[in-house]
């Protein structure tokens, strides 16, 4: 029966991850009635997310530990019906499985082998229920805003008809408008008769109070310390909640913690020019498309000038997508604006700064940039460069004074100041800890302290207070206030109204107008073929090359391939030239390889031109078809075809497709890590190979750690949608083999036929 | 019991230096196992592509001299198999990881075209073979070095094979001595760069707290029990 679904019984639940001394959850006993709406709160680190994972039956999906007690949903184990307990994670995008909206929602139904006809209506219903009904099903998930992505995650759980829905701080990383969209979608869901039981974890209670009936409070040692109707519990527990750092409705921002300005003194300035000034600017981003053409999109516009005057706080505000982070990146010199000299920084060393001493931040070396400004990105764990908390704070000061950085020569004052700074931020006891093991809130405070220790005149901070509880908020805002009192200038992208209230200048940003539609190019044969035909065509070149016995034959084979390349890439309409130019560019590495293989053969095999020419042409025969065909392979469709046509096992295929569609994000992570090192004064110079090795090593480690975290998060999200038991799935979209696929393979066989008959 | 899922690894206890194995059954791949291999493969695939660009430039210059010494620079391409096998410790992990990495490095276009995928299979099989010989029970630095070294021979065979009536791989025309030197260089590179450095990389990842769901993460916890 629908009406009685969603009863959750947690009995004596305890959980201690291996490697931790104390349990995260202790003897939790809790019963939720069907359809009940519950707000779960507690201080950072109190095990709120852990409890949600336990209710979903996913505690041991990506972690190991001691589990005691039991969880039952409608009398059964939580995982016994896939998708019975839906889970939405905090970080938008952490649970995105597929490259398009429709595919992503269909993931759960596919896991439970729902027939494809049923999936379509399930997908459209689920999207309509979260207010995304007007999105086309093939909308790329990467183009959604944060709020849309969170609603997509909600739709993904709805497609499995959940009895319980768990939301883990679903709006913590969103701007106010996007957060409201998500809450509206939740409100619409839970007001229906027979609605699922709802548990929301949040530390900003105000906007949720009207959506829930019951409040459950966890203590920082993982016990339930209060439980009752939401209004009553708020009234009786008010002081307790405030002391935990929870944002209680009706309560203003906390008093910032007093920090001694001497700890973060900016270097004294001697002239009248501000340390950083920007005239109105625009930022364009160019992407290269598969057919070799380029598309340029305006990603941000700054319409007024920005001057980082000592003591000032400039707030960049605007809805998500308005380019706040992009403008900060540009101010730090990571992106080139139009006009290119719009951003100027003035060296603090200049005795009487004049405009001739001003430079673009991109033109400075790493040390110069670190002296001119500091930058704290939104994902503060990516700025970690040292292996202890204390070293992390000292990194930039050491990089700027290399001669006295080692051991006893290091100015004791610097170390003392770093310790005092850590103590002021409540991190003093963690001085020797590995910063990568800190909590997110601790890492955020550490990142700001590490950015300011060497006294840069300007701080660029991207959403520094997002996701902070009252206590950490008060510490961060206190630190920034001390820095301003000491003569520092702050420019921050934020949507925190309490931070905006403290700003000396508020700069509103507006999303640039979308670029006009470019007329579509003609569609060549290669773009119409399925991924297996393309891959097969490319692989057929291998035997063709290997079997070509002599360069005279190879010439004939290569000629056939060139003709076929033109056939495959030609299409009526514009774009043929860019396609061919793009292909030629991709053949270039192959040409280099052909030359080098030819040379080595000439050099080692009797200095005879004949075999050298033969192997060089062999390389070209093998490489050319790949350059023509491979770029047109679509990773998602490749997954469909590998599983349905080649009958490869479903789970590895889905995982590979999910990994492929995130490859593009690796480049972004790599540049963010690289920028974080540069702005902290850790430069790279080809003249010092040690710095290059350190740089590549650090970036590779950083990328791999982020990648592994993403895989663990995604594993939780996927198992919440029935993937754990999806040994054999249904597939929503068919993987047809068409006549044109046969045609492509037949054409690709021709060079092989030439090679074989000539042997 | 709250769930049916077996604990990922066992409770830390004192060990005698032998490797921890994955949970039984060994073929019981968890979602996090599959996703971790796929994501590691994808990340290393991007690195493969980057190494390919470097290899195509400065390293190619070596071919002007004694080309078989290029084998000393192929180790990075064997990393995915070794690292995948060391992290997940289940049958197929090394092969799966190396093939995903090859697939990803093939997509943007390299100097080797679709042969990259074939190479991924051949190299992954070599590393997989070593982990299988040890019954997926031994994951020491020595086993890692052996897995790195044995990633080379199948790949080498593909590159130097020659057909009786003409034709063959890229280095088909070299004399046998040069081919053998090339094999030795490849195996040495595989043992050092993929094996030893790969083992150190896995240990560093465990220290960074990124492998808590896997046996290497547990080995780290045991040596640093809190």
Molecular structure report:
By secondary structure, chain A is an alpha/beta fold. Among the domains of chain A are: 1-45 and 65-84 and 162-249, P-loop containing nucleotide triphosphate hydrolases (Rossmann fold), CATH 3.40.50.300; 261-508, 3-Layer(aba) Sandwich (Rossmann fold), CATH 3.40.50.300; 525-635 and 742-758, no CATH class. In chain A, helix 4 packs parallel to helix 5, helix 9 (389-400) runs parallel beside helix 11 and helix 11 packs parallel to helix 12. Chain A is globular and about 90 Å long. The model of chain A has no long low-confidence stretch (mean pLDDT 88). Chain B has 226 residues and is mainly alpha-helical. Chain B has one domain: Arp2/3 complex 21 kDa subunit ARPC3 (Orthogonal Bundle), CATH 1.10.1760. Chain B contains eight helices and no strands. In chain B, helix 1 (31-59) packs antiparallel against helix 2, helix 2 (79-88) crosses helix 3 (93-106) and helix 6 (152-160) packs antiparallel against helix 7 (176-207). Chain B starts with 30 loop residues before the first helix and ends with a helix. The model of chain B is unreliable at 1-8 and 11-16 (pLDDT under 50).
> Main β-sheet of chain A: number of strands, strand sense, barrel status?
6 strands, mixed
Number of helices of chain B: 8
What is the oligomeric state here?
heterodimer
- Which consecutive residue ranges of chain B, at least 5 long each, have pLDDT under 50? 1-8, 11-16
Order of helices and strands of chain B: HHHHHHHH
- Looking at the structure, the CATH topology of the domain at 261-508 in chain A is Rossmann fold
Low-confidence region ranges of chain A? none
Helix content of chain A: 40-55%
Strand content of chain A: 5-15%
CATH architecture level-2 label of chain B: Orthogonal Bundle
Q: Class of the domain at 261-508 in chain A, according to the CATH hierarchy?
A: Alpha Beta
Give me the count of strands of chain A: 20
- How does the helix and strand content of chain A classify structurally? alpha/beta
Under the CATH scheme, the architecture of the domain at 261-508 in chain A is 3-Layer(aba) Sandwich
Structural class of chain B: mainly alpha
What Rg of chain A do the Cα atoms give?
29 Å
| Overall pLDDT of chain A | 88
| Backbone shape of chain A | globular
Q: What's the structural domain tally of chain B?
A: 1
Straight-line distance between termini of chain B = 27 Å
């Amino acid at each position: 029966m629908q009406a009685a679904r969603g009863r959750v019984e947690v009995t004596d639940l305890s959980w201690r991850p291996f490697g931790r001394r104390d349990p995260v959850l202790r003897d939790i006993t809790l019963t939720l009635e069907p359809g009940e709406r519950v707000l779960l709160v507690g201080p950072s680190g109190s095990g709120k997310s852990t409890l949600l994972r336990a209710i979903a039956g996913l505690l041991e999906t990506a972690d190991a530990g001691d589990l005691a007690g039991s969880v039952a949903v409608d009398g059964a184990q939580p995982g016994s019906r896939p998708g019975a307990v839906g889970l939405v994670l905090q970080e938008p995008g952490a649970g995105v499985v597929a490259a398009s909206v429709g595919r992503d929602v269909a993931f759960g139904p596919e896991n439970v082998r729902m027939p494809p006809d049923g999936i379509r209506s399930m997908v459209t219903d689920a999207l309509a229920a979260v207010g995304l009904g007007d999105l086309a099903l093939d909308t790329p998930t990467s183009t959604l805003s944060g709020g849309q992505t969170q609603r997509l995650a909600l739709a993904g759980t709805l497609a499995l008809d959940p009895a319980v829905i768990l939301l883990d701080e679903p709006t913590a990383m969103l701007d106010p408008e996007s957060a409201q969209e998500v809450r509206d979608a939740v409100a619409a869901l839970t007001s229906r008769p027979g609605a699922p039981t709802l548990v929301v974890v949040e530390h900003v209670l105000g906007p949720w109070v009207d959506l829930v009936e019951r409040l459950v409070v966890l203590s920082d040692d993982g016990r339930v310390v209060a439980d009752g109707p939401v209004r009553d519990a708020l009234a009786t527990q008010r002081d307790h909640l405030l002391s935990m750092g929870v944002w209680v409705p009706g309560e203003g921002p906390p008093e910032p913690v007093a920090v001694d300005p001497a700890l973060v003194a900016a270097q004294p300035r001697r002239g009248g020019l501000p340390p950083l000034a920007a005239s109105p600017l625009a930022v364009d981003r160019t992407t290269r498309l598969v057919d070799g053409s380029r598309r340029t999109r305006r990603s941000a516009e700054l319409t007024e000038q920005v001057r980082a005057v000592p003591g000032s706080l400039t707030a960049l505000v605007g809805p998500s997508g308005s380019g706040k982070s992009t403008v900060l990146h540009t101010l730090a010199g990571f992106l080139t604006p139009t006009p290119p000299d719009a951003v100027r920084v003035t060296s603090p060393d200049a005795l009487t700064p004049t405009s001739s001493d001003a430079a673009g931040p991109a033109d400075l070396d790493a040390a110069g940039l670190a002296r001119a400004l500091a930058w704290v990105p939104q994902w503060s764990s990516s700025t970690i460069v040292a292996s202890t908390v204390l070293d992390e704070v000292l990194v930039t000061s050491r990089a700027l004074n290399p001669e006295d950085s080692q051991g006893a020569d290091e100015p004791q004052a610097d170390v003392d100041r770093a310790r005092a700074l850590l103590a002021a931020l409540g991190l003093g006891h963690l001085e020797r800890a590995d910063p990568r093991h800190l909590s997110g809130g601790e890492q955020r405070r550490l990142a700001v302290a590490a950015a300011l220790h060497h006294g840069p005149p300007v701080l660029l901070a991207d959403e520094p207070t997002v996701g902070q509880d009252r206590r950490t908020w008060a510490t961060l805002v206190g630190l920034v206030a001390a820095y301003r009192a000491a003569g520092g200038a702050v420019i921050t992208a934020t949507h925190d109204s309490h931070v905006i209230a403290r700003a000396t200048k508020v700069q509103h940003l507006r999303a640039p107008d979308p670029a006009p539609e470019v007329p579509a190019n003609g569609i060549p044969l290669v773009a119409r073929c399925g991924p297996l035909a393309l891959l097969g065509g490319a692989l057929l070149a291998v035997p063709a090359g290997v079997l070509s016995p002599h360069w005279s034959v190879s010439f004939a084979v290569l000629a056939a391939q060139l003709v076929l390349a033109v056939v495959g890439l030609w299409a009526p309409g514009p774009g043929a030239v860019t396609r061919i130019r793009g292909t030629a560019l991709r053949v270039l590495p192959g040409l280099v390889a052909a030359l080098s293989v030819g040379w080595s053969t000439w050099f080692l095999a009797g200095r005879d031109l004949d075999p050298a020419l033969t192997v060089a042409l062999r390389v070209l025969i093998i490489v050319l078809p790949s350059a023509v065909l491979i770029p047109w392979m679509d990773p998602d469709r490749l997954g469909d075809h590998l599983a349905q046509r080649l009958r490869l096992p479903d789970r590895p295929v889905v995982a590979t497709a999910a990994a492929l569609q995130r490859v593009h994000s690796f480049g972004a992570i790599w540049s963010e890590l690289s920028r974080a090192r540069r702005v902290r004064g850790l430069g790279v110079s080809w003249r010092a190979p040690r710095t290059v090795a350190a740089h590549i090593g650090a970036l590779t480690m950083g990328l791999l750690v982020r990648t592994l975290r993403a895989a663990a998060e995604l594993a939780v999200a996927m198992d919440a949608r029935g993937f754990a038991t999806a040994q054999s799935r249904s597939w929503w979209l068919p993987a047809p083999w068409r006549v044109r696929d046969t045609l492509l393979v037949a054409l690709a066989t021709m060079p092989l036929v030439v090679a074989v008959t000539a042997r | 019991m709250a769930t049916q899922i077996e604990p990922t690894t066992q409770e830390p206890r004192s060990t005698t230096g032998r490797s921890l194995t994955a949970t039984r059954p060994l073929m019981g791949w968890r979602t996090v196992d599959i996703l971790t291999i796929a994501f590691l493969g994808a990340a290393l695939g991007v690195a493969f592509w980057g190494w390919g660009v470097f290899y195509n430039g400065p390293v190619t210059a070596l071919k002007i001299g004694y080309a078989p010494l290029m084998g000393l620079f192929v180790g990075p391409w064997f990393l995915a198999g070794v690292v995948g096998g060391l992290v997940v410790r289940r049958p197929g992990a090394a092969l799966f990881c190396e093939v995903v990495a090859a697939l990803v490095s093939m997509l943007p276009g390299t100097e080797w075209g679709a042969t990259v995928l074939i190479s991924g299979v051949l190299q992954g099989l070599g590393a997989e073979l070593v982990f299988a010989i040890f019954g997926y029970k031994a994951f020491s630095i020595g086993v890692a070095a052996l897995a790195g070294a044995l990633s080379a021979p199948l790949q080498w065979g593909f590159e130097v094979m020659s057909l009786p009536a003409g034709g063959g791989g890229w280095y088909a025309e070299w004399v046998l001595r040069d081919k053998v030197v090339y094999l030795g260089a490849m195996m040495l590179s595989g043992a050092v760069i993929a094996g030893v450095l790969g083992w150190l990389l896995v240990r560093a990842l465990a220290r960074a707290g990124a492998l808590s769901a896997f046996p290497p993460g547990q080995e780290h916890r045991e040596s640093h029990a809190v």
